[in-house]
Specification:
With 30 residues, the protein is mainly α. It has 1 helix and no strands. The mean pLDDT is 93. It comes from Papuadytes abditus.
Length: 30
């Protein structure tokens, strides 16, 4: 159960990082 929770947290962190990068790229290209 702990492994599943850790995997879920890492997935959320990676999704937030991808969103942050996409927003940064969109801001730079404006």
């Amino acid at each position: 159960m702990l492994f599943f929770k850790d995997l879920f947290l890492s997935l959320i962190c990676s999704l937030l990082l991808i969103i942050f990068v996409l927003v940064g790229v969109a801001f730079l290209t404006l």
